[in-house]
Amino acid sequence: MTAGARPDKVAAMDAPPMFLELELPPPFRAVVSTRAGGESPAPWDSQNHGTSTGDSAERVLRNARRLADALGPEGPGGPEGWALVSQVHGSLALEVGRPGRAGEADALWTGRTGPALGIRVADCSAVALAHPPTGRLGLAHAGWRGAAAGVTGALLRAMNVPATEVHAAISPHLGPCCFEVGPDVVAAFSGRFCAPRRGDRSSLDLGAALRSELSALGVPASRIRADGRCTSCARELFFSHRRDHGATGRMIVLGWSRPGRPPGGP
C-alpha cells in the first residue's frame, strides 16, 4: 500500500471495473460490460444484461442505467438510445437508424452517430467493425455457429465499405482452453482451428477462426485487435454459459460514435 493511502480507497481501486474498452479508432468507441457493479443477485450477480435465464427485466434495466452512468458524458447515453437485435446464432445483418429492437438478426450496423449498437454475449464473441471514412460502424454476434456461417463477412458486405479500410475489434470469448466441442463443430470448420483432446472431443479456437475470416475478407492484420481473455477462466470479470452450465447472466457489448466528433474526424 502506498504511503498515506486509505485502505478503503485501495480496495475500491482493486475492484473489477464495470466495463472494458475494445480498441477502435476515433470517432468510434466500443466497450464490453463485466459482471461487476450491478444489482442482480446470484446466479446473475451482478451486472447482468439479459433476461433469457430468468433475471427480472427491471433489474436488467437498472443495470443498463448503471453502465450508462459509468460510461459518462462521452458514453452512448441511457438504454433508451441503444439499438439491439434478437440474436438467433445466424448470419443476417441489419441496418439500423434508430434505437430499439430491430428484429431477429446477429449483426447490426449504422452510418449515424446514434444510436448505440448492442450485442449480448456469454462465451460468444462480439466483433466490431469500424470504417472511419464513412462513419459506418457494425457489431456481429459470433459464437461458433455464427463464425461457421460467416456472420462477420455478412456484416462487412452489408456495410458496403472496403475491407482494407476497416478496423476490427474482437471481444473476450470462450478460449480454446475451455471450448471443448464434438465432431459436428469440427466438421462445421472443416477441421480448421480445432485441436484433438480426448476421444472424439476437440478444442475450438474461436478467436483464431474470427481473425482468419477477417484477414481473408481483406482486413489488414494490423487493424485487427482482439481481447484474448477467456470468459470461462476470468470468473471475476465475465459470465460464462459453459462454465456455469447455463445458470448465468449476459454481458453487453456497446459500440457508438463519440459525441461531438464527426465521422472521420480526429
Fold blueprint:
Layout: H1 7-14, E1 19-22, E2 28-33, H2 57-71, E3 82-86, E4 93-95, E5 100-104, E6 107-110, E7 116-121, E8 125-131, E9 136-142, H3 144-149, H4 151-159, E10 167-170, E11 180-181, H5 183-188, E12 194-196, E13 202-204, H6 206-217, E14 224-226, E15 251-257
Parallel strand pairs: 3-5, 3-7, 4-6, 10-14
Antiparallel strand pairs: 1-2, 2-15, 6-9, 7-15, 8-9, 8-10, 11-13, 12-13
Q: How would you describe the overall organization of this protein?
A:
- By secondary structure, the chain is of the alpha/beta class.
- It is built from 6 helices and 15 strands.
- The protein has helices spanning 7-14, 57-71, 144-149, 151-159, 183-188, 206-217; strands at residues 19-22, 28-33, 82-86, 93-95, 100-104, 107-110, 116-121, 125-131, 136-142, 167-170, 180-181, 194-196, 202-204, 224-226, 251-257.
- The strands form 3 sheets. It has a 6-stranded mixed beta sheet with strand order 1-2-15-7-3-5.
- A hairpin with a 4-residue loop joins strand 8 (125-131) and strand 9 (136-142).
- 46% of the residues are buried.
- The model is unreliable at 1-12 and 261-266 (pLDDT under 50).
